[in-house]
């Protein structure tokens, strides 16, 4: 919440400017939880998804085909970095947001560690396969 007023900057992860996922990355980092960088990775990092009716402060909420993320700040509100030309702010969850809602996650260190292992497995080169020739 103390980052409100800082401008949106695409790819931003600092007080010079934040994009939506960069803001979430730094907020959870301050709480000792390491998140992946992008909205898609942040959503995928947790197998347990939270429904609209079960949202609690601290939950990450995803919208518009995972194109945007915010954090529930209090019931019915989220803090986020909306888009170019805007700033980090708290906003009431509108009916429009509900129609664009994809899902939510409740980050925890265990979930992120599991995601990191999946990413590592995906990026580790496969062992060379020995082939025989005739």
From TrEMBL:
Query: Which InterPro entries does this entry report, sorted A to Z?
Result: NLP_P60_dom, Papain-like_cys_pep_sf, PG_Endopeptidase_C40
Keyword Hydrolase, does the record have it? yes
UniProt cross-references to PROSITE patterns, sorted A to Z: NLPC_P60
For this UniProt record, give its keywords in alphabetical order, as a comma-separated list: Hydrolase, Protease, Thiol protease
Which regions span the lipid bilayer?
Answer: none
Q: Which residues form the NlpC/P60 domain?
A: 1-108
A Pfam family: NLPC_P60
- PANTHER family documented for this protein: NLP_P60 DOMAIN-CONTAINING PROTEIN-RELATED (PTHR47359:SF3), PEPTIDOGLYCAN DL-ENDOPEPTIDASE CWLO (PTHR47359)
Q: What is this protein called?
A: NlpC/P60 domain-containing protein
